[in-house]
Design goal:
With 376 residues, this protein is α/β, with parallel strands linked by helices. The chain has helices spanning 78-90, 109-117, 138-148, 162-169, 175-188, 208-215, 244-254, 318-323, 329-341, 347-352, 371-374, and strands at 15-16, 41-45, 95-99, 128-133, 152-156, 194-199, 221-226, 257-260, 270-274, 280-284, 297-300, 305-307, 315-317. It has a single domain, classed as TIM Barrel. The relative contact order is 0.19. The structure holds iron/sulfur cluster. Iron/sulfur cluster binds at residues 286, 291-292, 295, 297, 309-311, 345-348.
Length: 376
């Protein structure tokens, strides 16, 4: 059956210039939204480019040779990213995840990591700095990333079989090189390493058990992610979603496991432990078991737009405040506070309450921002 690809309505430009409150209040580090969710994690997309074309994120039909990627001048500079990060940290952010596209494609990313690693929380603690990568450049860069101050990495790997892997990411890149990247990252101390596998029923779900067998006893935490209706281009269909409950069933049939409690508030993965001590796996169930209730994640796009939800269709243009109007940090901080305090996003929760063929009123699928633009 032909995949329905929706032409990309370029939502990169749909953003409001934030309101700057007249009354400036010093950040308290305890900023909460309308559902009492604190601002704790900031995901920063440092490039909209990638050298893979994963069908669930950057389908090659859309992100082809004619696709207009962002010009360098429109990307936030490392100084601008660092300035914004300090503002978010004062509001309570303690964890930074660098994403993309493929973040290791951003030149001199180690310089940015070095700048972020100098920032401390109001309590004097270092930030928890991690990065999500397809590992195509990890073997080469792991040591310099570690030296710059990166603590951990999450690697996207959708199968061990090269043909299946290719079907998921649409490029000719050997799985062996991804595994090599994981090995080197482990060796230089970028651990604990997490591996994320997006499961698409009928495409790579037969890789669930081979992946589990491969990473047992390795110390790597393997997570299975339900295929999501992110963005507007991946032609998502509910019948291609394999619910996490079925993933767990398949694993349990071979490896007895028990459920674990979350490591921290807002953790996206449901954790499971092999009873024979072979390690931990997780499932991330945005479609069948939404976790919006304690979602404490903000996303900064490559060119400085703040998005409050992965499924948002409108951003807040912080770059406009950085580059225009001579706003102080206090004013930008007040604007960020004003935005988060009015946040009420809970797309997955609301979507889960609807029949599969119905889209959420007010969340026009064709207008959703692309995951490759704001990071997963
Ligand atoms: S759907 Fe939006 S609000 Fe819900 S968990 Fe995902 S990013 Fe958070």
């Amino acid at each position: 059956m032909d995949k329905k690809i929706i032409p990309l309505a370029d939502m990169r430009y749909a953003a409001r210039v934030p309101h700057v409150p007249a009354h400036l209040q010093a950040p308290t580090g305890l900023l909460a939204d309308t559902l009492a969710r604190p601002l704790h994690d900031l995901r920063i997309s440092v490039t909209d480019r990638c050298n893979f074309r994963c069908s669930y994120c950057m389908p090659s039909e859309v992100f082809n040779k004619d696709y207009a990627f962002l010009p360098q001048t429109s990307l936030l500079s490392f100084e601008e990213i660092t300035r914004l990060t300090k503002i978010f940290v004062a509001h309570g952010v303690e964890k930074i995840r660098l994403t993309g596209g493929e973040p290791l494609l951003r030149k001199h990313i180690e310089v940015l990591i070095g700048m972020l690693a100098k920032i401390q929380t109001p309590g004097g603690q270092p930030l928890d700095i991690t990065l999500t990568t397809n590992a195509s450049l990890l073997a080469k860069k792991a040591q310099s990333l570690k030296d710059a101050g990166l603590q951990r990495v999450t690697v996207s790997l959708d199968g061990l079989d090269d043909a299946v892997f290719r079907r998921m990411n649409d490029v000719d890149f050997p799985v062996a090189d991804v595994l090599r990247g994981i090995e080197v990252a482990e060796k230089v101390g970028l651990a604990p390493i997490k591996v994320n596998m997006v499961v698409k029923r009928g495409t790579n779900d037969a890789e669930i058990l081979p992946m589990a067998r491969h990473f047992r006893h390795s110390g790597v935490v393997l997570r299975f992610i339900e295929y999501m209706d992110v963005g507007a281009t991946n032609g998502w269909r509910m019948d291609e979603v394999l619910p996490s409950a079925q993933v767990i069933e398949r694993l349990q049939a071979e490896f007895p496991m028990e459920a674990l409690s979350a490591n921290y508030l807002g953790e996206t993965a449901e954790r499971w432990r092999y009873l024979d001590g072979a390690g931990e796996v997780g499932v991330i169930s945005s479609v069948t078991h939404a976790f919006c209730g304690d979602c404490n994640r903000a996303r900064l796009s490559t060119e400085g737009k703040l998005f409050l939800c992965l499924f948002a269709s409108q951003g807040h243009d912080l770059r406009a405040l950085l580059r225009g109007g001579n706003y102080s940090d206090e004013q930008i901080s007040a604007a960020v506070g004003h935005i988060w305090q009015r946040r009420d996003d809970r797309y997955s929760e609301l979507r889960a309450a609807l029949p599969a063929d119905q889209s959420l009123p007010g969340n026009d699928a064709a207008r959703r921002v692309e995951m490759s633009y704001i990071g997963g």
